[in-house]
């Protein structure tokens, strides 16, 4: 059979396979005010801070322990939005389990809060006659309580609008190697910046990626691994390679994957390395695709093959494979259905593309 050049294959791919949905916007290309959620107390498991701004009142931020005076859940915008109304819903689904002395507070500089409104019952709506250039809004406990701080949702009416968080997520850092606390905080911020992008890129119906992961930085061999709701990173490695944040992005992709089975392992790691090296990392760090080997080689070699498939044969294929793996419905026939040929044929075509 005659193999297609990459360019010809690209033309064909456009004709035969359009992606399921448009690729999400890269973090650096987002415009307008973006929401950042922060809480003074750790979340109670998956009830992370971002659940308070996901447009869904059935999910909530909930503090791990009882609310203490000055505990707060704060929504900060990356730039001001002219806001005419703020509404907050607190407590559990029935409006119960309310912490005492809650107030809703607004800020135009992100530091001082000029408006403070008592929250009575399960919520309050605050309307402004003249739009306020809002930069931050928080729900704060003014006294100690025996109930946790629960914020179901903050609603803003603003110009421009502030996008909701589609995939609430939080990385909490446990820097057992204390000298890496600052590095861990930086890596956490980078992971949280990229999580919504990859969650959307790999999204499928009826799949909710995990909302919480704990990053443990400790003395151990190797680089990093993910499992059981935790990511463990080797202190020695990240001390010596502080620029290897991509290794943590790789582990974060494993969190999104959360497959019931690690099978086939080469595809789990290949898909992950595709996301890490061909999307997250800048082009000058990307490994060069080389001929030879096999698709089962895993990691970067498989990642390069998947990047070629995604670019030239079947855009959107990685999202489909991710969902099949997550739903435990992966089967070798899927390559024929979604990429037009079986794996060995696709690999032979990929190898032939190096000859052009
Ligand atoms: Zn891995």
Q: Any overview of this molecule?
A:
The chain is an alpha+beta fold and 356 residues long. It is built from 9 helices and 11 strands. The protein has helices at residues 6-16, 181-201, 235-240, 245-257, 265-280, 299-313, 317-326, 333-339, 343-353, and strands spanning 35-39, 61-66, 72-90, 102-107, 115-118, 123-141, 148-159, 170-175, 212-218, 224-227, 230-234. Strands 1, 2, 3, 4, 5, 6 and 7 form a 7-stranded antiparallel beta sheet that branches. A 4-stranded mixed beta sheet has the order 8-9-11-10. Helix 2 links the parallel strand 8 and strand 9. Helix 2 (181-201) crosses helix 4 (245-257) and helix 5 crosses helix 6 (299-313). The longest helix is centred in the middle third of the chain and has 21 residues, at 181-201. Mean pLDDT is 93; it is low at 1-20. Zinc ion is lined by residues 250, 254, 269, 272. Residues 250, 254, 269, 272 line the site of zinc ion.
């Amino acid at each position: 059979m005659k193999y297609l050049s990459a360019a010809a294959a690209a033309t064909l791919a456009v004709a035969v396979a359009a992606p399921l949905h448009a690729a999400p916007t890269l973090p650096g290309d987002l415009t307008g005010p973006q929401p950042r959620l922060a809480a003074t107390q750790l979340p109670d498991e998956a009830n992370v801070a971002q659940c308070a701004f996901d447009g869904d009142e059935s999910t909530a931020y909930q503090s791990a322990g009882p609310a203490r005076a000055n505990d707060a859940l704060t929504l900060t915008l990356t730039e001001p939005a002219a806001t005419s109304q703020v509404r907050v819903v607190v407590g559990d689904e029935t409006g119960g389990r309310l912490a005492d002395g809650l107030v809703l507070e607004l800020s135009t500089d992100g530091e001082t809060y000029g408006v403070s409104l008592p929250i009575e019952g399960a919520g309050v709506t605050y309307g402004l006659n003249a739009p306020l250039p809002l930069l931050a809004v928080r729900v704060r406990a003014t006294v100690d309580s025996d109930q946790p701080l629960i914020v179901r949702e903050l609603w803003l009416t603003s110009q421009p609008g502030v996008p909701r968080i589609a995939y609430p997520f939080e990385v909490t850092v446990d820097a057992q190697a204390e000298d890496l606390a600052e590095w861990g905080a930086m890596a956490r911020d980078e992971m949280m910046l990229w999580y919504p992008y990859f969650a959307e890129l790999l999204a499928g119906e009826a799949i909710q990626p995990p909302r919480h992961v704990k990053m443990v930085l400790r003395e151990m061999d190797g680089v990093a691994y993910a499992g059981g709701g935790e990511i463990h990173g080797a202190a020695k490695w990240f001390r010596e390679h502080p620029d290897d944040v991509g290794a943590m992005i790789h582990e974060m992709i494993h969190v999104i994957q959360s497959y019931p089975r690690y099978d086939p392992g080469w595809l789990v790691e290949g898909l992950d390395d595709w996301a890490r090296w061909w999307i997250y990392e800048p082009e000058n760090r990307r490994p060069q695709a080389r001929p030879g080997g096999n698709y089962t080689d895993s990691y970067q070699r498989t990642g390069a093959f998947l990047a070629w498939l995604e670019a030239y044969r079947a855009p959107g294929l990685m999202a489909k494979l991710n969902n099949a793996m997550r739903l435990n419905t992966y089967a070798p026939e899927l390559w024929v259905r979604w990429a037009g040929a079986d794996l060995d044929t696709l690999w032979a075509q990929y190898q032939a593309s190096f000859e052009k």
